[in-house]
Specification:
Oligomer: heterotrimer
CATH topology of chain A: MetI-like fold
Largest sheet of chain A: none
Number of domains of chain C: 2
CATH architecture of the largest domain in chain C: Roll
Chains: A mainly alpha, B mainly alpha, C alpha+beta
Largest interface: A-B, 54 and 43 residues
Number of strands of chain C: 25
Strand content of chain C: 15-25%
Number of strands of chain A: 0
Strand order of the largest sheet of chain C: 8-9-10-1-11-23-12
Largest sheet of chain C: 7 strands, mixed
Number of helices of chain A: 13
Shape of chain C: globular
Distance between the termini of chain A: 29 Å
Helix content of chain C: 25-40%
Distance between the termini of chain C: 37 Å
Helix content of chain A: over 70%
Order of helices and strands of chain A: HHHHHHHHHHHHH
CATH architecture of chain A: Orthogonal Bundle
Radius of gyration of chain C: 24 Å
CATH class of chain A: Mainly Alpha
Shape of chain A: flat
Structural class of chain C: alpha+beta
Number of domains of chain A: 1
C-alpha cells in the first residue's frame, strides 16, 4: 500500500525523459542508415566539399555529438533547415504547420472514440453493438486509407490541398484512424470491460444498496486504468497517423516523420519525433496526475462523527 | 454449460484458426521464386478467363500475388506473435512474483519504447537491412518489440488482479511446485487468453504493416522495404484495386482478392483469440 | 539602348498585367528536390530550374543552334583559353535588382569554391579556371584548357551575388526553396508542389501567368486526370499508356528528347565477367526485341517506334553514333552457350558454374526506371534465367544509386540496369575513362581499358567537331566489342499536353527553354 506512488513516479520520470530520450534513440537509429545526407548530396569520391558539408551539419561528430548540437539549438527553438526533404525550408516552419494539423487530426479522430467511450460507460451503446465495432476495427488502416484517398481524389482531384479539400483529407484521415486497426472497438470494449469488471466488486453492490450510483463508486477506482487506456488509444492513433498522413498527403507530423526518414533529413525527423514525444509525455503526466489524485482520494479517511 | 462443453465450443474457432493459418502456409509453399513474364494481351482478365483469381494490368495471374505475398508475411507474422507472447508472459510473471524494482524498470522502459514513433523505427530498420537480406523478419521482430510493452502491461494487470505474489504464496501453501504455479496456473490458466490475443493481434498487425510499407514503396517508385524485388506483395493487389476505385479500371477482382486475403488473416487471428479465451 | 529596354520592359509588364491570367498545372515525375541549380539531382530539378534561371547559352529547341538571351556579345581570348562575355543591359533579378557581370563572376567563383559541395560545380571545376569582371558589363571567363566547343561549356545558370553571404553556397539555404533568378518565372517550393509566377523582363515575355507543378503519383490516374482536364500537362507518359492519350482528341503527345540511352553495366572486375567472351555471351542471351515488346509495348517491326536499339553509348541521331556497328536485336542461345563454354563455364543441373562454383548473378536496376519500362528487371532476370543463370534481382533507390553505384562502390553487383541522359554536351568520358583524379567520375564498375582511355583523351584534345566525332566513332566500336555495357535502347520520352496549350515547344533535356512562347486557351 505504501508503494502506490511508484507507478505515478515512474510515469512522471518517463515523461521528463521522453522528449530527450526519444530523439536521442532515434539519432542512434538513423545514424545506422547507410551513407549520410552529406555524402548523398555530395559523394566524397566525386564531389569536393563533402567534408565541409558534414562539418556544417555536425555529421562528423558522431551521433551523440550531432545530437548535442541539435538539442542545443532545439532548446532555443532553432531546429535548423531541411537538408533534403524540403531543402532550405526552416524546420520550425514545417513544425508550425504540422503540429496543429496532427492535433486537429487526432481531435477529429478522438470524437468517435470519445463518443464510443462515453456510450460504453453510460450504457447508451449496447454491448450487442460490440461485434459490429469489432468487425469495423478489423479493417487495416491501409485499406480504409486508400478508400478515403480515392474519395478525396474523385471529389477534389489529386492536386487539391487547400480549403475543403484539406478538410476532406483531415476528416477522412480521422475516420480511418478512429475506425481501423481496432481503435474505436478497443476503446469501447476496453472501457466497457473495465467498468463491468469493477462493477462486479462487492463494494459496489453495497454502495448501490446504500442508494449510491454505480458510476460514482466505480469511476474513481477505474480512473487511472481508464486514463491509461485512453493514453494507449491516443498513442495508437499517433502511430497510425504516420501511415494515414502519408497515404492521404496530410501535412502533419506523421508525414514529416515518414518523408524525413526516407530522405535522411535528420533535422526533420528529430524535430517531428520530439513533437511526438512531447505529446506522449503530456499524456503520461495526465495519467500520473490522475493516479495520484485517485490514490489520495481513496486514502482520505472518511469523516466519521464521534459517538 | 459444462467445462467440457465450453472446451468443445472452442473447437470450431480452433479449427478455423488452423485452417486460416494453414491456408497461408500452403500459399507460401506454392509461391514461385520469380515473377513470370507478363502477357499484356491478357490484361485484367477475370477469374473466369484466368482461374483461379484472374489477371493484373500486365496479364499476370493474381495467383502469383496471392502465393508470393503469403511467402513474404506468413512466417514473420507468426514469429512476431511468438516474440510478443514470450514478452507478455515475462511481464505477467514479473508482476506475479512481486519483484517491484524489476517491475518498475520494465514499466519505465516500456513507457519509453511505447512512446517511440513505431513506423519511423520500423522504417529505419527496413532501410538499414542490406538489399540482399531484405525480408519482413527484422521488421516483424522490431514491431513485436515495440508492441510488447502494451502486451506486458496487460498481462501484468491480469497477474495483479489474481493477487500478485499473494496468489503465488497461496498456491505454494497448497504444495504446488514453482514450475506448476507459473506455467500452469499463472500462464496456462490466467495469462493464456491475453497472451494469445496479443500474439494474434500483433501477427495481424505485422501483416498490415507489410501491406502498408509495400504499398508506399510501390506508390513512391522505391525498392521494396519488406521483400526481394523479384516477388509481389499483396499490396500490389491493393494498388491495382485503387485504380478500380478511382478511375473505374477493370481491376475490381484484384481488390476483391486483396480484401479476401486480408479477411483470411483477420479471421484466423480472431479465431485463435476466441479459441484461447478464458473458461 | 537603356531607354529602349526600359520601354520594352514597361510594355511587357503591361502586357503581363493585361494578360489572360492563365494558370497551367502539370504533373511531374517527382517534386524537385531543390530549386538551387547548383544542387540539381533529378531531371525534375533541371526542368524546374529552367523556369527560374537563365543559362548563358542554350540550344534552340528547333534548330539546335546555340543561342543566348542574356549575352550581348562574346569573343574568344587568350588563344581560346578564355572567353569575354558582355551581358545585355536592363536584365533584372526577381527581387528587382539589376543583373551584371559581377553576378556572372560570382557564379563562377561559387562553383570553384571548395566550400560549395555541389557535384555540378565539381564538373565545372575541371572546365573553368576563373572569372574577372571587366568594364561595361563584361566578364572574362578563363578555361582550364582550350575546348573545341567553348560556349557549350558555359551552360550553367547564373546566380545573383546579392542573394548570398559568400561564394561558399550550401544546399540548406533559403535560396533552395525560394530562389531569386532571372528566368521567366519566379518559383516557390511548398510541401506538395511548386508554384511559378510569371516575371516579365527585358529578355522574357511569358504568355502564361502561372505554372503549378505537382507530383504525379500513379501514371494511370495522371492520364485520366489530364483527359478530364484536371491538369493540363504530364511531363512523362509511360509508353504503355500512350495509346490512351492518343485516343483523346483533347490531349496531344509531344516528344521530349532527353538524349538518354539505357544500358546494362557489367562488372568487368568480377571473376568470370572479366572475360570478354562471357560479356558477349550475355549480350547474345538477351532478346532485346522481346524485352522491348513486353516492357515498352513496341511490337517487332513497328514503324515510328519510340524505342530505338543502340549498339553503343550514343543515340542513333547523334553525330557520334557509329552506324557501322550493328545492333543485336534477337538472342542467339547457341552462340551464347558456345562463348560461355569457351570461357571456361560449365553447366551443371541446368545452371552455369565457374571453377566448380554455382553462379548467382546479382542484378540491380535504378528503381524509378520501372515506371517507363515496367517489369524490365524481372524480364531481364527471366531471360538470363532461361539462359542458365541463377539470379537475385534488386531495385536500387536514387540515393543509393548516386551514393554508391555512381561512385564506383557497386562491387557486389554483377549487372546494373540504368539510363544516362545528356544535357548540352554529349561527353561520355566520365562513364568509361578509368577512374582516377578527375577522370571516370561516374564509371560504375571502375572499368579500365587503356585503349579506351587513349581514345577518350583524343576526344578531349580534339579541336574540331570532326576530330571529336572520329574519336567517338572509334570509342563506339571498341565498346561494342569489349562490352563493359550491354547497350539496350534509346527510349523517347513523351509528354502529354492538352490541345489548348499552344505553341508549346519542348526543348531537349531542359524542357521549358522556350516557355516564353507558350500560350493557353482554356
Amino acid at each position: 500500500m505504501t508503494r502506490w506512488w511508484i507507478r505515478p513516479l515512474v510515469r512522471l520520470v518517463a515523461a521528463l525523459l521522453l522528449p530527450v530520450a526519444v530523439p536521442a534513440i532515434l539519432t542512434l537509429l538513423i545514424w545506422a542508415l547507410p551513407g549520410d545526407p552529406a555524402s548523398i548530396i555530395c559523394p566524397p569520391e566525386t564531389c569536393g566539399g563533402s567534408a565541409g558539408l558534414a562539418e556544417r551539419w555536425h555529421l562528423d561528430d558522431g551521433p551523440m555529438g550531432f545530437f548535442r548540437h541539435w538539442a542545443a539549438g532545439a532548446l532555443h527553438g532553432d531546429f535548423g533547415r531541411s537538408w533534403r526533404m524540403l531543402q532550405g525550408v526552416e524546420v520550425g516552419e514545417l513544425l508550425a504547420e504540422a503540429v496543429p494539423t496532427t492535433l486537429v487530426l487526432l481531435a477529429l479522430a478522438g470524437v468517435p472514440v470519445g463518443l464510443g467511450v462515453v456510450g460504453a460507460v453510460t450504457g447508451r451503446l449496447p454491448a450487442k453493438a460490440d461485434p459490429l465495432f469489432h468487425v469495423l476495427g478489423l479493417m487495416p488502416s491501409i485499406v480504409l486509407g486508400l478508400a478515403a484517398a480515392a474519395l478525396v481524389q474523385l471529389e477534389f482531384g489529386a492536386g487539391a490541398f487547400d480549403g475543403s479539400a484539406r478538410w476532406a483529407r483531415l476528416v477522412g484521415g480521422a475516420l480511418v484512424l478512429a475506425f481501423s486497426d481496432g481503435a474505436l472497438a478497443g476503446a469501447v470494449t476496453g472501457t466497457r470491460g473495465l467498468f463491468s469488471a469493477e462493477a462486479r466488486q462487492r463494494y459496489v453492490g453495497i454502495a448501490v444498496l446504500r442508494g449510491e450510483t454505480v458510476l460514482s463508486n466505480t469511476l474513481p477506482n477505474v480512473a487511472p486504468a481508464l486514463v491509461g487506456q485512453l493514453r494507449a488509444r491516443v498513442l495508437h492513433l499517433l502511430s497510425g497517423a504516420v501511415i494515414v498522413e502519408a497515404l492521404l498527403e496530410i501535412n502533419g507530423l506523421g508525414d514529416l516523420l515518414w518523408g524525413g526518414t526516407i530522405w535522411q533529413d535528420f533535422g526533420v525527423v528529430l524535430a517531428a519525433a520530439t513533437a511526438f514525444a512531447v505529446l506522449s509525455a503530456a499524456l503520461l503526466v495526465v495519467q500520473a496526475v490522475a493516479e495520484v489524485l485517485v490514490a489520495l482520494h481513496v486514502r482520505r479517511a472518511p469523516a466519521v462523527g464521534a459517538e | 454449460m459444462s467445462g467440457a462443453g465450453r472446451r468443445f465450443s472452442r473447437w470450431p474457432s480452433g479449427l478455423l484458426a488452423a485452417a486460416g493459418f494453414g491456408a497461408l502456409l500452403v500459399f507460401a509453399a506454392f509461391a514461385p521464386e520469380f515473377l513470370p513474364d507478363p502477357d499484356p494481351s491478357r490484361a485484367w482478365q477475370g477469374p473466369g478467363e484466368m482461374p483461379p483469381f484472374g489477371a493484373d494490368d500486365r496479364g499476370r495471374s493474381l495467383w502469383v500475388y496471392a502465393t508470393q505475398g503469403a511467402s513474404i508475411l506468413a512466417w514473420p507474422a507468426l514469429l512476431a506473435g511468438f516474440v510478443v507472447a514470450l514478452l507478455a508472459v515475462f511481464g505477467g510473471v514479473v508482476r506475479a512474483t512481486g519483484a517491484a524494482r524489476l517491475d518498475g524498470w520494465v514499466q519505465g522502459m516500456g513507457e519509453v519504447v511505447g512512446a517511440l514513433p513505431r513506423m519511423v523505427v520500423v522504417l529505419v530498420v527496413a532501410l538499414i537491412v542490406p538489399a540482399d537480406s531484405r525480408s519482413l523478419y527484422p521488421l516483424a521482430v522490431t514491431w513485436a518489440l515495440l508492441a510488447a510493452p502494451g502486451a506486458m502491461d496487460e498481462a501484468a494487470a491480469v497477474a495483479e488482479r489474481l493477487g500478485g505474489s499473494r496468489f503465488v504464496e497461496a498456491l505454494r501453501a497448497h504444495g504446488y511446485s514453482a514450475a506448476r504455479i507459473f506455467l500452469l496456473h499463472i500462464v496456462g490458466y490466467n495469462l493464456r487468453p491475453v497472451v494469445v490475443r496479443q500474439a494474434a493481434e500483433v501477427s495481424m498487425q505485422v501483416v498490415f504493416l507489410e501491406l502498408a510499407l509495400s504499398y508506399l514503396a510501390l506508390a513512391g517508385d522505391r525498392p521494396s522495404l519488406t521483400h526481394a524485388d523479384s516477388v509481389m506483395s499483396w499490396a500490389g493487389l491493393l494498388s491495382q484495386g485503387y485504380t478500380w476505385l478511382v478511375i473505374d479500371m477493370e481491376s475490381g477482382h484484384a481488390l476483391a482478392l486483396g480484401l479476401g486475403l486480408i479477411a483470411l488473416v483477420t479471421g484466423a487471428s480472431l479465431a485463435v483469440s476466441h479459441a484461447a479465451r478464458a473458461r | 539602348m537603356a531607354l529602349r529596354n526600359a520601354l520594352r520592359s514597361a510594355g511587357v509588364t503591361a502586357l503581363a498585367l493585361a494578360g489572360t491570367g492563365a494558370t497551367l498545372s502539370y504533373h511531374e515525375v517527382s517534386l524537385p528536390t531543390t530549386l538551387n541549380p547548383l544542387f540539381a539531382a533529378t531531371m525534375s530539378d533541371y526542368r524546374s530550374q529552367e523556369l527560374v534561371f537563365d543559362r548563358l547559352w542554350f540550344h534552340d529547341a528547333v534548330t539546335n543552334e546555340l543561342k543566348t538571351r542574356i549575352v550581348e556579345k562574346w569573343e574568344l581570348a587568350e588563344g581560346g583559353k578564355a572567353i569575354k562575355v558582355t551581358l545585355k543591359s536592363g536584365l533584372k533579378w526577381h527581387d528587382g535588382k539589376s543583373m551584371s557581370a559581377k553576378d556572372l563572376c560570382f557564379t563562377v567563383r561559387a562553383m570553384l569554391d571548395k566550400g560549395t559541395p555541389s557535384p555540378i560545380a565539381e564538373g565545372y571545376r575541371g572546365v573553368l579556371e576563373g572569372c574577372e569582371v571587366q568594364g561595361g558589363n563584361s566578364a572574362l571567363i578563363r578555361f582550364t584548357r582550350v575546348f573545341h566547343n567553348p560556349r557549350e561549356r558555359l551552360g550553367f545558370a547564373i546566380l545573383p551575388e546579392g542573394a548570398f553571404q559568400s561564394t561558399a553556397i550550401t544546399p540548406d539555404l533559403d535560396f533552395s526553396a525560394h530562389p531569386v533568378g532571372s528566368g521567366p518565372f519566379k518559383g516557390s517550393r511548398g510541401r506538395r508542389g511548386v508554384v511559378f509566377d510569371a516575371f516579365a523582363n527585358v529578355h522574357h515575355q511569358p504568355g502564361i501567368a502561372q505554372l503549378q507543378l505537382s507530383e504525379g503519383n500513379d501514371p494511370l490516374i495522371q492520364v485520366k486526370t489530364i483527359i478530364n482536364n484536371g491538369v493540363q500537362g504530364i511531363i512523362a507518359v509511360p509508353p504503355t499508356l500512350r495509346p490512351d492519350v492518343s485516343a483523346s482528341d483533347e490531349v496531344a503527345l509531344k516528344s521530349y528528347d532527353l538524349r538518354s540511352w539505357w544500358f546494362i553495366a557489367v562488372n568487368t572486375n568480377k571473376g568470370f565477367l572479366a572475360d570478354k567472351r562471357v560479356r558477349q555471351a550475355l549480350n547474345l542471351m538477351l532478346d532485346r526485341s522481346k524485352l522491348r515488346e513486353l516492357a515498352i509495348g513496341v511490337k517487332p517491326g513497328e514503324q515510328n517506334s519510340p524505342c530505338e536499339f543502340i549498339s553503343g553509348p550514343f543515340v542513333q541521331s547523334s553525330a557520334y553514333y557509329n552506324r557501322a556497328i550493328p545492333v543485336v536485336e534477337r538472342s542467339d542461345r547457341a552462340r551464347s552457350d558456345k562463348l560461355l563454354t569457351d570461357a571456361g563455364l560449365a553447366k551443371q543441373g541446368g545452371s552455369w558454374t565457374w571453377k566448380g562454383q554455382s553462379i548467382n548473378l546479382k542484378i540491380g536496376m535504378l528503381a524509378p526506371l520501372n515506371t517507363e519500362a515496367p517489369d524490365l528487371l524481372s524480364l531481364i532476370g527471366n531471360q538470363l534465367g532461361e539462359g542458365g543463370f541463377k539470379r537475385v534481382e534488386n531495385k536500387i533507390s536514387e540515393d543509393e544509386w548516386n551514393r554508391q553505384i555512381l561512385t564506383g562502390q557497386a562491387g557486389d553487383y554483377d549487372l546494373l540496369v540504368g539510363k544516362w541522359s545528356f544535357g548540352l554536351v554529349e561527353d561520355v568520358n566520365d562513364q568509361f575513362h578509368s577512374r582516377g583524379g578527375k577522370n571516370g567520375k561516374v564509371n560504375i564498375f571502375n572499368y579500365a581499358n587503356p585503349s579506351v582511355d587513349t581514345v577518350l583523351q583524343e576526344y578531349d584534345r580534339a579541336r574540331t567537331d570532326t576530330a571529336a566525332q572520329d574519336a567517338y566513332h572509334r570509342l563506339h566500336a571498341t565498346l561494342a566489342d569489349d562490352l563493359p555495357y550491354l547497350f539496350l535502347w534509346k527510349l523517347d520520352t513523351k509528354s502529354a499536353w492538352r490541345t489548348g496549350v499552344r505553341n508549346n515547344i519542348i526543348a531537349p533535356y531542359h524542357y521549358f527553354t522556350e516557355i516564353d512562347g507558350w500560350r493557353y486557351d482554356k
